[in-house]
Design brief:
- The chain has two helices and nine strands; from the N terminus they run ααβββββββββ.
- By secondary structure, it is an alpha+beta fold.
- The chain folds into two domains: 35 residues; 147 residues, Porin (Beta Barrel).
- An eight-stranded antiparallel beta barrel has the order 2-3-4-5-6-7-8-9.
- The protein is globular and about 60 Å long.
- The mean pLDDT is 86.
Length: 189
Amino acid sequence: MFKTLLTLTIMASSLTAFAQMSESEKRNVESRLEGTLPEPKEVENKSEYKIHMGLTAGVNSPNGDAESSPEFGINVGFQPYIPFGLGAEVITAELGDSNVQRTSVLARGSYNFGGDIPVLRSSFVGVATGPMFVDGNNVEWSVGPLAGFDIPLQNKASDFLSLGLQAKYLWTTGTQDSFSAGLALKYWY
């Protein structure tokens, strides 16, 4: 009984705290939410293109009997229309004990978040698709979602490095689907 009363008291006090917010505080909360999902608009200057190139290193974890293995790649991209990004990446991984080498050449599309919330403003979600070369002689198709973030190491509009994390799941037409996650080091022009 005591736990139920305590829970109800905490819930009621948190609701009344929100109700007591001034109108300006409520507008501030609403503007933070609106700022997280930027309004689509044309790029007006070079820094808004967010041109970048980078290196990725992580773990590729295929479904099935193959073990997880290291994955390495390079990527390039830009933002042709705010907040949408386009890019390409080449990633390669040798699947654990099977000695199967998979190299993917992926086109990427992403939605870039914004606003003032520290990690969320540097985050993105998207999709990647393209051919996957298995042992150099088989070609399969892969597609899947991706998500990640890039935290700037310097507070500049251009010419800076960022360090982030990226995760993606790729469905393939032939070999095992795979989940991969890793670090992304990017240089922004």
